[in-house]
Amino acid sequence: MKKQVLKFIVLGVVSLFMTIGIAAAADPVRIGVIYPLTGPAAAAGSYQKAGVEIARDKFNAEGGIIGRQVQLLVEDGANDPAQSVSAAEKLVT
After folding, report:
1. Whole-prediction pTM value?
2. What are phi and psi of 31, to 5 degrees?
């Protein structure tokens, strides 16, 4: 009798952890980047943005990171320190 109860409890705990793992795997991995998309260095920023988008697409095509898709959050720093700080604060919050 005790063995059956123990098996039932273990099965329940394993099922719970598997359900939690599946739910967590559904959330994307978010990566925030700040590039100068406007201003004097906009050309370089657009190339950098294109590069991370290619990498994101490659990761997602290969199944993502630990089974989770990659989502990019791109902000414009405009080659300006004040705007870059504002963009970083936006990404953090």
Report:
1. 0.69
2. -125, 120
